[in-house]
Amino acid sequence: MDRRIIAEPYKIKAVEPIKMTTRAQRESFIREAGHNTFLLRSDDVYIDLLTDSGTSAMSDHQWAGIMWGDESYAGSRSWINLERAVREVYGFKYVVPTHQGRGAENLLSMLMISLGQYVPGNMYFTTTRAHQERNGGIFVDVIIDQAHDPRSEHPFKGNLDLNKMTELIQRVGAENIPYVCPALTVNLAGGQPVSMDNLRQLRALCTQHGIPIMYDATRAVENAFFIKEREEGYADRPVAAILKEMMSYADGCTMSGKKDCLVNIGGFLAINDETLFTRAKELVVLFEGMPSYGGMAGRDMEAMARGIYEMIDDDYIAHRVGQVRYLGDMLMQQGVPVVRPIGGHAVFLDARAFLPHLPQEHFPAQSLAAHLYVESGVRGMERGIVSAGRDPETGAHRYPRLELVRLTIPRRVYTDRHLEVVADAVVRLLARRESIGGLRMVYEPPTLRFFTARFEPIS
Ligand code: F0G
Questions:
Q1: Catalytic residue check, 126
Q2: How far is the CA of 381 from the centre of ligand 1 (A)?
Q3: Last-in-domain residue among 283, 311, 339
Q4: Statement to judge: residues 95 and 223 lie in one domain
C-alpha cells in the first residue's frame, strides 16, 4: 500500500468502551430492527459507521467550552463567538443559527422558493430535496454524468455540468430558478468534491443570469482538502484559504455543523444579503429559537465556535481524509467494488456490483448493510433505492443508478485498527456473496422512508 503513514494528530484522553456481541445475538437484533440498520440500538453495534453526523469526538478545548458556554437567553457570549467564527472562517456577512443543517434548509427553502420553481443541485441530498419539494420547488439534478458511474475516476465527480445548467435556464427561464444549490462535497455521489474552477465558472454563469448561489457547505472543508491535493495551484495553500475562496463564489450557505464543525449538534444559515437576513431572523424565531441561539444551547454554540477553528487545521484534515482513504484502499486491494475515487467522509460499497444476482427492487444495498452487521457488528447505511424514495408525481420508486452501502467514518473516533476489522468483514462477505439474498419492504412511511422502513428476507 503506497500510503505514507499519517498517524492521528491527537492523543486519547477519555475512552468509551464498546460492547462485543455474538453472531446469534446480532441475527436476532437485525430481525427485531426490520433489517434496517437505522433501527438497531447503538449498544448492540461494535463499530458504528452509520454516519459521520454528530458523531465526532470533541477536543479537550471544545469540552472546556461546554463548561464555559454562556446560557443567557439573549446576547450570549457564546453566540458572539460562534458568529465571529463563521464570519472569519467562511467569510459570509450574516449568520442565523439553527439546531442542525435541515433547520437552515427549511429557512432557506421557505424564504426563497415559490410554487413550481426549479432548484438545480449536484445530485440530491435527502433532507435538502425534501425541504425544497415541501416548499413547492422542483429539484433538478445537474451533476456531471460521471458522478453516476461508480467506476469513473474523475477527480471532481461532484462538479456541476454547466451545459445542463444552461439548458435548464433556457428551458424554464432564470426567473424560475430561485437559487442553485451546490453541495460541497456530494454525499450521495460518494463524498465527491467540486473543483474551484467549476465553482468559479458557475459563479460567472449565475451572475450573468442573476441567479443566487447557496451552497450546502456541510463538508466544505473536506472539499477544500481535495482541491489542495488535486487542483493545480493549490498544493501550497492552507485549507483555510481554499475554503475562503470557495465561499467567495457563493451568496450564502446552509450548514450542518454536525459534520465539518466537529460538534454533536448545531447548524447555521450564512448569507450576504441584508434583506434576506432580516427575513431569516423573523422566521428563525418561529421554527428554531431566538436569532442568537436558533435551537442550540450556549454550550453547543461555544463548542461549535471552537470546532470551526479546529476543522481548518491542515494536519487534522489531512488525517481525516487520509483515514477514510485507508479503509478504501484496503477494500480496493482485495477486489471489493467501491465508489472511486474514495471520497471525503465515507467509503461506499457498490452493492450492484457486489450482489449482481439481486434486482434493485430486492433492495441489494439494504440487504448488504444488514448482512455486514450480522457478520461483524459493523453498522453501515443504505444509500440506494430505499433512500431515493418515491417520485412525488407518479408515486413510483425512484431507481437511482447508484445502489450503495455507506461506511461513514466519524471524525477522530476510530483507530486504523478498527478500520482493518471493517475491511476484513467486508472481504469475508464478498467471498460468500452468493449466499446473500434480497429483501421485501413490509412497512413504508410516507417521507424519508429509509429512516424507519422495515423489511423481511425474501426466502
Ligand atoms: N446536507 C448534507 C450534504 C448532509 O449530509 C446532511 C446530513 C444534511 C445536509 C442535513 O444536516 O443532519 O444536520 O440536518 N447528513 C447526515 C448523513 C444525516 O448521515 O449523511 P442535518
A1: yes
A2: 13
A3: 311
A4: yes
Question: Please, are residues 456 and 35 in contact by the beta-carbon 8 Å criterion?
Answer: yes
Which member of 325, 383, 411, 449 is catalytic? 383
Q: Structurally, how many domains does the chain consist of?
A: 2
Decide: pTM greater than 0.70: yes
Q: Tell the residue nearest (CA) to atom 16 of ligand 1.
A: 53
Q: Which value, to the nearest 10 degrees, does the dihedral of the CA atoms of residues 53, 259, 225, 160 take?
A: 80
29 flagged as catalytic:
no
Q: From CA 383, how far away is CA 390, in angstroms rounded?
A: 14
What's the 53 CA to ligand 1 centre distance in angstroms?
A: 7
Binding site membership of 36 for ligand 1 (Cβ less than 6 Å): no
| Judgement on whether residues 70 and 172 belong to the same structural domain of the protein | yes
Residue numbers of the domain that contains 296: 60-311
Domain boundary among 264, 286, 311: 311
Which atom of ligand 1 is found nearest the CA of 103?
A: 14
Assess whether 13 and 154 both reside in one domain.
no
297 in the same domain as 174: yes
CATH code of residue 351: 3.90.1150.10
What are the pLDDT tens digits along the chain (459 aa)?
Answer: 455 677 899 999 999 999 999 999 999 999 999 999 999 999 999 999 999 999 999 999 999 999 999 999 989 999 999 999 999 999 999 999 999 999 999 999 999 999 999 999 999 898 999 999 999 999 999 999 999 999 999 999 999 999 999 999 999 999 999 999 999 999 999 999 999 999 999 999 999 999 999 999 999 999 999 999 999 999 999 999 999 999 999 999 999 999 999 999 999 999 999 999 999 999 999 999 999 999 999 999 999 999 999 999 999 999 999 999 999 999 999 999 999 999 999 999 999 999 999 999 999 999 999 999 999 999 999 999 999 999 888 999 999 999 999 999 999 999 999 999 999 999 999 999 999 999 999 999 998 899 999 999 998
Nearest alpha carbon, ligand 1 atom 13: 101
Q: Are residues 337 and 246 in the same domain?
A: no
Question: In this structure, which residue's CA is closest to atom 11 in ligand 1?
Answer: 101
| Residue 102, ligand 1, Cβ within 6 A | yes
Residues 257 and 116 in one domain: yes
- The response to whether residue 127 sits with its C-beta less than 6 Å from ligand 1 reads yes
Q: What is the pLDDT of residue 1?
A: 43
